[in-house]
């Protein structure tokens, strides 16, 4: 569109020039007391209709557009502001809401009795929404936003979303992200967080991710410079807990974890001490602290002690409390204190009261510390508790098995979408591996549990006789039909009663039937379940690559000269041909499970 035309359109906003319609805004009110009708003095309250209902219930809005302002029972419609002169071609071209109304059957009936202009009636939740509605309509004409603050931008964004004003939501998002350049801006976003979009909205999730990312960047940068939120507003811990949300999200997202690791000790202390910081398990909070200390190696002993004080030890699982915690040399809890703590947390009320009296006289033991007295942190929000990690194994890794001698066992580690081989949950790390014995017609699939490396010292993972529950999880492998459709080949649900040995795996040794058995019913495939120690050991012994070693056969060819060169070349060609056939034969066994050159599946929680 030409620049002169754009400039001319912007002058038509609210103008009667060439206007062929009007936009009337109104609110529906509910009478609490008194009479209804004109001149009523009753107190009123606005109809409680959420923005999501308004966006989703186009039928309700459209059906009411052409009704006159009248009272119905205890409700009445009140006009808000003055009618806005508009142009059908412009507003219908730039807004789906008005285009839908223009195409409605009742359109000819919606005309002003005075000048015959068509009338669009728009319902607002409250009169306070009028400025943002007018700004969204102005955007249709000018393509520019007239917001003065972050709060104004969020209001315009919300209104433009349910009116479906083309390009307005995206323009608001871009401006909002550009506005977050200081700690004061983060405070302003936090203060009007009720205006942020819901995760259910189409553009909501990605925008929230970007906005929170911008806020975290400013929090890390400004707190490292010693800045603090202005007095009278939200505290630093509130801002951090809101932007970082929960410990599991921090551990799962590399960028968010790096932002957490960039926080100064004082800011991390505020985050750990916040009553609003959620987690799936207190062990994830301890793991998060371990990650921070691993990066911030210059932390003073005093700062480390203050940080550790905020870990709610009484909320740790028995495995972490009794097996892992004593091995953490950096955690300021000696063997004597550890015994005292375990005695305190397992004691009855009478004994605990007496122990509190004794501890009060000691500077080392304070029963009021979060170690002893803090309640469980808030649980994960619904959006974070349902987690889905897609994993895969490249077919080239499967093909390497063809070089193994008959009966040799190989373990193949799955990779998740971000390239990692492990994902965090409940303070541990979890991975998927596939076991296959050369020449077999079945393959095993296992969920494996690891102690995170930042908690390991001198191989303590191997010496811990610990078992861990993955919680409500499900491990799935897919297969593919002739039409390319995806089906479940094997799936196992885990619960609180399923325990995985630390460093070992739990699944099925015959999860996948190869070749002709690939179409076997899922129920039959789930019959065999077993714990795999060998797979786990093999996984660890080849930590950096996949557990299958490439054959060195033929690697020394050419090192010695021979008079029988033609015979050697023939033997080499024959060997290469045999390896090629073995590779093709092996991949044919896995063909029902391969898609885009990968064995694929998903690991889910929640």
From TrEMBL:
Residues 520-576 have a biased composition (Acidic residues). Pfam families: BACK, BTB. Pathway: Protein modification; protein ubiquitination. Residues 253-324 form the BACK domain. Residues 80-178 form the BTB domain. Residues 36-76, 513-582 are annotated as: Disordered. InterPro entries: BACK (IPR011705), BTB-POZ/Galectin-3-binding (IPR051481), BTB/POZ_dom (IPR000210), SKP1/BTB/POZ_sf (IPR011333). It comes from the Eukaryota. CDD domains: BTB_POZ_ZBTB_KLHL-like. Residues 55-66 have a biased composition (Polar residues). PANTHER family: BTB DOMAIN-CONTAINING PROTEIN-RELATED (PTHR24410:SF23), HL07962P-RELATED (PTHR24410). This is BTB domain-containing protein. The lineage of its organism: Eukaryota, Viridiplantae, Chlorophyta, core chlorophytes, Chlorophyceae.
